[in-house]
Amino acid sequence: MANQTLKPLAAPNLAAQPLSITYPALDRPLKLNSGFLNLLPKFNGLPGEDPYRQVNEFIITCSTMQLDGIEEEQIKLQAFPFSLQGLVKDWLYYMPPGSFTTWTGLHKAFLEKFFSASRIGSIRKEICGIKQLVGESLYEYWERFKWLCASCPQHQISEQLLVQYFYEVLMPQDRGMIDAESGGALVDKTPEQAQNLIANMAHNTHQFGLRRSNLGKRMDEGQSSMMEAQLANLTAMVSKLMTGGNAKASLCGICCLEGHTTDMCPTLQEGEANAIFPNQRRYDPYSATYNEGWRDHPNLRYQNRATPPGFEQQNSRPYNSSQ
Q1: Bias regions of kind Polar residues — which residues (predicted)?
Q2: How far is CA 66 from the centre of its chain?
Q3: pTM of the predicted structure, to 2 decimals
């Protein structure tokens, strides 16, 4: 070894490197088919991924693989590396050789690595500070609370405090319904009884909550459509008033009517005409009021007119009774 040159020392080692997982000796070889491996859930270690859910889905998938003479724990130990991707798989391969000999040890190390204490503390704070949102039904609130608790099984919060955190921030309507169902007050129930009562009420009001949500959605959509129509009309009116070149959209500053500009107002033009011809009167034979022009009409004069010829001589003759 000491007499070797640098070239053979720098040559790659072709011997198989020991793995971090030591597989137990089996009486028969364990072969995992490609169909089973494709069913395994994949975990990349991203912030939005849940390690506990990953493990649960992995265990469920492995339970479908039944081989005679081979325990399920051995299947999990051998199949788990195929469910890891990216940096998570690098973590497993870079562990010291022989670090894991059982599925339990591998399972524990995986959760400790990818579900840190800081994440546990963050979820604990979310559980303690949970509250029912405005418009959220009892069923939706209960499901969100259960999911939050299940995402961190080691939250170490007692059942009594869990019920208290959930109950104290309920909306008055839902809290009153739970109190009425519990016979007066929920505090008279044990933590287990209180959880069962809340779960039953959330399940019973599930359909009602959906209908109320849909009704509110339809009402919001109708109000939104009405407001959009009113806004469109208002926009059109403002655009109409702001258009300077459109004569129809012009608004008169004297009579406050549309259809003409201020300088073309009939009232203004009539006043200008009276100022130019102050003594000129207008003859209107069709006016409904008195018109001085009617004086000059030949049929409307009150003065004596010329007597027809022969009329005066006829009236001046004496009356003859003998006739």
Answers
A1: 301-323
A2: 46
A3: 0.55
